[in-house]
Amino acid sequence: MKSFYIVAAFLLGTFWMSCKLINPSEKIPTYVHIDSFTFRQPSAGQGTASHDITSVSVYYNNNPVGFFDLPVTFPVITTGDSGLLTVSPAVTVNGIHDFQSTYEYYTFDNKVLKTNPGKVVTMQDTTGYNTLAHFPWSDDFESGNGFTNLGGGSLVVDTNVADVFEGHRCGRIDMQPDSTFLAVAGKSFSMDVNGLTYLELNYRCSTPFEIGVQVLNSTGGDATVFLVGGYPNPNGWKKMYISIQAVAQQYPNGQYNILVKGLQGTGGYILLDNLKVVGDQ
């Protein structure tokens, strides 16, 4: 009988050790909270510091943690006393919330994350334009109006303090009922077919509009391509990031001009500011 108890104790101990191996104790994560980004003051020629960073891609010691909408609190399983947390800003592309992408022309932020199990660490991340960013075209209306009106009304410089987003001027289009408006930027720019190119802009409107690109002298011929638009938001200014790279891929080696189109409707206004093309050349 004594040998039976010895065997039973041995088997029970072996079972307990097996459970410990199968279900090891779980590490308690350190939690990180990110509310928003601070944007560094742009250098000369980079335009406004206005941004709309809506999400982040996060790595810990070069290992992926996740992709999160802001604001967010997320867990990190740390190693040792501290590790490196890398946060890359991401934006809403083409006004589509489900189309979130890290923005290639914003810097990522590296911070040391100290291990603090079960606690929430609040981080204030900073970004700005990186060295890849080039600005081949921009118009903030501070030095005049770079657009030519092609019909249906006029895009004019507005100095009304109640209308202006920042600075002293913005662009304004007053839409007439049942009319369509079109204007083209007077200065053209080029795009790298293999690169990534965006149009950034701030807008406020009571009637919808579209942004497009006029193509001249490309390998694929001349063309007019409308991409995405803005929808009424009379209560405040919004920021938009529009991917225009597909135009260069379809019509390579051309000269490109930004188009603004006011859509036919019941009338209203469109306010524009800080339009700028951001690319790698």
Structure description:
The structure is a single chain. The protein has 281 residues and is mainly β. The chain folds into two domains: 30-127; 134-279, Jelly Rolls (Sandwich), CATH 2.60.120. 10% of the residues lie in helices and 48% in strands. The chain has helices at 2-22, 245-250; strands at 30-39, 53-60, 63-69, 72-76, 82-92, 100-102, 109-114, 120-127, 134-139, 147-151, 155-158, 170-175, 181-185, 198-205, 209-216, 223-230, 238-243, 255-262, 268-279. Strand 2 and strand 3 form a beta hairpin. The longest helix has 21 residues, at 2-22. It is elongated, with a radius of gyration of 27 Å. Mean pLDDT is 91; it is low at 1-21.
CATH architecture of the largest domain: Sandwich
CATH class of the largest domain: Mainly Beta
CATH topology group of the largest domain: Jelly Rolls
End-to-end gap: 86 Å
Mean pLDDT, all residues: 91
- Helix/strand/pairing class, anyone? mainly beta
Number of strands: 19
Runs in which pLDDT lies below 50 for 5 or more consecutive residues are: 1-21
Q: What is the percent of helical residues?
A: under 10%
Tally of individual helices:
2
Principal-axes geometry comes out as elongated
The multimeric state of the shown protein is single chain
Number of domains: 2
**Major sheet, described briefly?**
6 strands, antiparallel
Approximately what portion of the residues adopt beta-strand conformation?
over 45%
| CATH 4th-level superfamily of the largest domain | Galactose-binding domain-like
What is the gyration radius calculated from CA atoms? 27 Å
- Return the string of H and E elements: HEEEEEEEEEEEEEEEEEHEE
